[in-house]
Amino acid sequence: MTVEWGDSAGNYEASYYDGKKYKTIDVPKAVNSYVHGIDSAGDVVYAWSDSTGLLHGALCTKCTSSGRKYYKFHDPKGPKNTAADGINDHKLISGNYIDNNDVGFGFKATY
């Protein structure tokens, strides 16, 4: 199970609960990590914000084990927000982004 929570500084952190204890799984160098989904392999998707407040997407593979690796991504069509919102067991990520015209779109991607 994944959870996000606000710390005493007002920033959001992400954790994984393994049934016994919580493990922090924040996106490296993110100001805020908003965990949005996990699949049965322990791969996790996020929205995360940088120091300017811009949202980006991220995928953490093997996030519940010691071999975790983070992949950060952003929509190439503009500098607006991107978020990964869901993941399934077929390596499919869904999410949304806002283009330069402030129009929102959904996306799906495989990895």
Give an overview of the whole structure.
The protein has 111 residues and is mainly β. It has one domain (2-110). The protein has strands at 2-6, 12-17, 22-24, 32-38, 44-49, 55-61, 69-73, 82-87, 92-98, 104-110. The strands form 3 sheets. Strands 4-5-6-7 form a 4-stranded antiparallel β-sheet, with no helix packed on it. A hairpin with a 4-residue loop joins strand 2 (12-17) and strand 3. It is globular. The mean pLDDT is 93.
Outline the secondary-structure elements.
Blueprint: E1 2-6, E2 12-17, E3 22-24, E4 32-38, E5 44-49, E6 55-61, E7 69-73, E8 82-87, E9 92-98, E10 104-110
Antiparallel strand pairs: 1-2, 2-3, 4-5, 5-6, 6-7, 8-9, 9-10
